[in-house]
Amino acid sequence: MTLLFAFVLLATPLPPPPGHFREEPVPRGVEEAPPALVEDPDPWAELLWGAASLQTLLARRDYPALLVLATLGRITEAQGPHAPEGWTALVETLAVAGQRQDHPLQRCRALTDVRMGMLCALEGLAPVAPPPLAREMAEETAQVLSLGSRTARTLPPAYAATLAGGAAAWSDPFQRLAEEALERSRRSWLQAASLGEEASAHLEGVLTALVGLSPRLAPDDILEAFPTFQTLLARYPLGWSRAGFAPPHPAEVLGGYQAYVGDLMNSVRESARALGTAGTLGLGAARPADLPGSDDLMDWAGRRAFLYLASRSAALAGVEGASVERIKVVGSAASELQMGVLSFARDLATRGEKAALAALGGNLVAAAAALTGFFGFADGALGGQGAGEVRALREAVGSLREEVASRFQQLDRRWETLVSSLDQRLGTLETLVARGNEEVRSDLRQLHEEVLALGARMARTEENLLSYMQAGFDRDYQRTLVKCLEHRERFLPPHNQMDFSLFSECLADFRTRGTRDAKDALLTDQTTPTDDASLAAALEDRSTANLARRLPLLGRAAENRYGYGGLRGGRSLANPVEWSVAAEAYLRMLDEWPEHARYVTPGDLEALRSVGEELRQALNGIVEDPRTGERGTLLLRVVGDYQESVASLTQEVEALARRFQQQGLRRVPAESLLLTLEPSEAGDPVLTTPAFLGAWVPQEVRTAAVLGLEEVSLHYRLTFEDSISRENFRRRLKLFGRRHDRLVFSRATLDAELRLGDAEPLARYRASGPMTLIRTEEIAGGAESDKVKKVLERVPDARGHFFQNVWPGLAADGSAWRATAVPGNVLSRLDRAIGEELERHASQGLDNVFTAVCRPAGPPDRLSEDDQESVVRIQRALLGMTATRGLLESYLLLGLPFSVEENARLAESLTGPRALFDQRSLCGALAGGANPMRLLWIEEEPRRRAEHIEAALTEVLSSTDSSTELLPMVDRTLQGLEASVRLQRIRAELAQRTE
To answer: How far lies 172's CA from each of 158, 179, 332, in Å?
Structure first.
């Protein structure tokens, strides 16, 4: 929809978009001399050569050749058209690499990640290049990394996670570098050619070796070597004429371009429609039939090159700059969508469903990134009004200093009040012992309420104090963020340039925040106990910010409660959010100020990466035991702990039922219901009910059966459908006449019925097996003859074959079944009957117990001693369920964030209608009118929900795609750090080399 909207905007003039890239300063040691402008005698040949060379570089992913070409173009444009010394060795190195598959540079060409490919090429070429050239190549690589990082940062945070680990967002910076390198190199060759044949020969040889195409070729020769362009130009002419090399008319260029992009978008829609209807997608489904070539990467590169040809033709035709930019942006977005859709089926077959969907999503978000960047979505790390908000926060913290001091004094006074109150109450207790047990309990309860109220007030005071202290702790850091990351926005030229001293100070602050402050006690939870009450309170907020702060607590809980050391007991773990913000700020400083970044050693980056690796290991440890490699050890132990709390709750509720004479409610054991499928015909076996079939039975039906209100059963009937075909017609000489085969196929269908007593079936369930060849007959005579000469019984007993071979597969595959719903009026009738039955056995004493369970002030006076003890035990079980559910959900949100979003069963167990019970949800259900005995004892809903999440979690952990998921912010930041560490190491090595 976004692409369609952008396509419509092509006809609407837009103001020139803000520059997304800035020109880098000329490196030291290179004199800035504006090159003489030399007009190309044949602009059509220039464009075709550039487009063909661009297609070659993009299709090969030839990072080494591109790096050499970009550096050559930058130096020759600054110093003159003569190729400097050292290029011969580089070109020979590339030639040798192309002949050896085991050469390091050859392995670089196989990488799909642009960042890793450019770094690999730099690491392979820097040792064989002279120091000046190697330094220039390092700066070109840094420019690609910086532009790619800036492209990813233009996305909203919700979409940035989709690009974590993907390379799709880096296609535009990679192509931009290739376009600039080709244009600069050709200009340098033209300048050399103007000085004479001898001056341009060496440069021409270098260009031909790098791109495989001589810059002297005529347009006809280029089109003959690249038939894809010939076909595309025939279908979508851009208005060029060989006569006088006159620039095309703007309307012709835009008409051909719009037709091409329109066909691309139609292809994407057709492919998406095929994917939605058939569930799969052929690799060639959306590729135009008359375009040569079948390689997806080559087709993608050809599309990008043709769009480059269209945009440059529009510029030469005099089309306004905004429309030229639209040609590049919208066309590139359509190309990325086409690439993603065409490659989806291959990825689905070779890499699995999750990886295929991630790759497709990466291409979609890359397209969105290009469009949102073009239409003016700002970066906004701190927001447009970030400076004002930080200033207001600083003033608020300053105004609260006096209040913090007064809070300390109030805390001391309240502590004295508490001690005095306790001393007085204890004295009163001595005098009240003789007055009787009931009076003592009443006084103790009052004292308990007072202490709880005072403790709550103290807890609120401590929370306020912690928030004030953290605001003061963050004050200087917020000032650093504004000072460092908003430097360009706060000053006008020439004062918007940052000097190196301020740059180094900012880096030091970000390194300190990411490596030390991120582990500070104020930013991490290092003291909260791991008992049920403390965990329930600490994990009540399951936002990313709170879970990041509680990561050390989760590590201690794993070690103390479950004996699991995969999270290192939470020791020395940093706050992932604080670490990621600091590391991203450090990387952004390197991107924003490349003239200073070249002098930075990799030490800070390695320290930040070390902290990130510790976080990665801890987050991986949530899902996979680092010692044994077993997946789900911690998570399944937490589920087991939750089930133990549920068992304690169920046991206590059952004791309450016996005490209040509720056992008459439960006449039929729930575990004995609907275990078998009874045959409707004699001789058929009794079948075990599939688990999914039993789960389809509504709860009202099950409850009515447990209470003995109705008798519930499942019955089945087996039917067969035969199909006859005649084939293999043949003539057995004239003496024997004609022959053909008659094949008898049969398909078995099992129909199951859910019945209440002898009434009509409530619901029907049906599953059919495959067609099975049961008999082959040889027939004499013509096609209508029934004269059987020979019979071969392949399946003598069709029913026995079904039960032995077909039924096991149907019983395990729920997707093969079709079901009808139970009528709503029947469910309403059963629900009313259940309510009336429960009402007949209602007990006010039982209601008082559950009312006391959900009362925070404790049990009322009218409860007996046994009931009060039951209340305490139920509250203890509910507290354990609450704490364990908080632990489980926190571990899942940190260790399996994508599965929680994508797996429907897992999401339903956490936030859906079948979410795990805790104290708040259970008390909320009781307050809403749910009968506690029905919910907890008869239907055992907490136990069933615990079994549901255990099954969902086991399914996720046993998935064929066993890759461990990371928080998107951690994964994305680590990738940026690893790339920057490699780049800064190369820069450091080059700085130590002598020329």
So the answer is: 21, 10, 8
Here the contacts of 887-890 (C-beta below 8 Å, separation 24 or greater) are: 887/535, 887/539, 887/554, 887/557, 887/638, 888/635, 888/638, 888/639, 888/642, 888/916, 888/949, 889/539, 889/542, 890/539, 890/542, 890/547, 890/550, 890/554
| Alpha-carbon span 467 to 821, nearest angstrom | 54
Q: Concatenated DSSP letters for 445-489?
A: HHHHHHHHHHHHHHHHHHHHHHHHHHHHHHHHHHHHHHHHHTHHH
Rounded Cα distance, 88 and 353, in Å:
47
Give pLDDT, residue 99: 64
State the amino acid at position 90 in one-letter form: L
Query: By C-alpha distance, which of 276, 376, 286 is closest to 335?
Result: 286
Q: Is 197 helix (H, G, I), strand (E, B) or coil?
A: helix
Q: Are 55 and 178 in contact (CB under 8 A)?
A: no
CB atoms within 10 A of CB 601: 12
SS (H, E, C) 600-622: CCCHHHHHHHHHHHHHHHHHHHH
C-alpha triplet 820, 691, 806: angle, nearest 5°: 80
Q: What letter does residue 662 receive in the DSSP assignment?
A: -
- Band (502; pLDDT cuts 50, 70, 90): very high
What confidence tier does 44 reach under pLDDT thresholds 50, 70, 90? confident
Which residue matches tokens 């894809």? 228
Per-residue b/e over 929-953, b at no fewer than 16 CB within 10 Å?
A: eebbbbbbbbbbbbbebbebbbebb
3-state secondary structure of 256: helix
Tens digit of each residue's pLDDT (9 = 90 or more) over 945-986: 898 899 889 888 887 555 567 777 888 889 889 989 999 998
SS3 track for 465-476: HHHHHHHHHHHH
Q: How far apart are CA 348 and CA 507, in angstroms?
A: 43
Burial of 450 (0-12, 13-18, 19+ CB in 10 A): middle
| Cα→Cα distances 725→770, 773, 818, 881, Å | 16, 11, 28, 62
Q: Report the share of the chain in percent with pLDDT over 90.
A: 14
Q: How many CB atoms lie within 10 A of CB 325?
A: 18
Residue type, 709: L
Is 631's pLDDT higher than 80?
yes
Residue closest to 311 by CA, chosen among 111, 80, 527, 54: 54
Containing H/E element for 514?
helix 500-515
As a whole number of Å, the end-to-end CA separation of the chain is: 55
- Contact assessment for residue 634 and residue 561, using Cβ atoms and an 8 Å cutoff: no
Q: Which residues are within 8 A (CB) of 473 and not within 5 positions of it... i.e. 6 or more apart?
A: 517, 520, 522, 523
Over the Cα atoms of the chain, what is R_g?
37
Q: What is the reported pTM?
A: 0.69
Q: Is 432 exposed, middle or buried (0-12, 13-18, 19+ CB in 10 A)?
A: middle
Give the span between the Cα atoms of 924 and 926, in whole angstroms.
5
Alpha carbons 298 and 288: distance in angstroms, whole number: 14
User: Residue 984 and residue 978: Cα distance in Å, rounded?
Assistant: 10
Distance, CA of 864 to CA of 659 (rounded, Å): 12
Q: How far apart are CA 64 and CA 107, in angstroms?
A: 10
User: Which secondary structure element, helix H or strand E, spans residue 738, and what is its range?
Assistant: strand 738-756
CB neighbour list of residue 978: distance below 8 Å, 6 or more residues apart: 609
Distances in whole angstroms, Cα of residue 118 to Cα of each of 110, 180, 591: 12, 16, 16
User: Within 10 Å of residue 488's Cβ, how many Cβ atoms?
Assistant: 14
Secondary structure in 3-state letters for 135-159: HHHHHHHHHHHHHHHHHHHCCCHHH
Indicate the helix (H) or strand (E) that contains 793: strand 787-793
CB 237 within 8 A of CB 256: yes
